[in-house]
Amino acid sequence: MIIRSLITALLIAAPAAATDLTVNFTVTDVPTGQIMMNLFDSEAAHDSNTGPVRQAAVPVKDGKAVATFAGLAPGRYAIKAFHDIDGDGQMGMTPFGMPSEPFAFSNNAQPQGGPAPWSASNFTVDGTTTTAITIK
């Protein structure tokens, strides 16, 4: 009984194996520039747009870009990304505060009066995971 309890305790305390995530972007407007993205691992961080677990800037070539994140903990994640066409590292905005550069979210979730909600854009990362996002 004691050995069974110890084994159970060790299994519960053992860290989960790290996972890898590959994100394939397709860009429909301008086939150059870079994709800027934030990867979130919680609804609170996603909704407040603070504390992304990882960030990346990947070049667009021929309308495609790929970002890879190694060593993630298994769990739920969501992505916010935009196509930095002018290369300034910031999302272009109109005088009215609307984005002037293309953007997208994981699961190709649609914005709802602002960024797509966590409920529509989160997905599971477990083992080696690949997801695709189209930026329009």
Structure notes:
Mean pLDDT is 90; it is low at 6-11. 24% of the residues are buried. This protein has a single domain, classed as Immunoglobulin-like (Sandwich). It has 136 residues and is α+β, with helices and mostly antiparallel strands. It contains three helices and eight strands. The strands form two sheets. Strands 2, 3, 5, 6 and 7 form a five-stranded antiparallel sheet that branches. The chain has a three-stranded mixed sheet with strand order 4-1-8, with no helix packed on it. It has helices at residues 2-13, 43-48, 118-121, and strands spanning 19-27, 34-40, 54-59, 64-72, 75-84, 103-105, 123-125, 128-135.
Following the backbone from N to C, one meets helices and strands in this order, namely HEEHEEEEHEE
Largest sheet: 5 strands, antiparallel
Q: Averaging pLDDT over every residue, what do you get?
A: 90
Number of helices: 3
CATH superfamily, please? Immunoglobulins
Characterize this entry briefly.
Helix content is 16%, strand content 40%. The chain is of the alpha+beta class and 136 residues long.
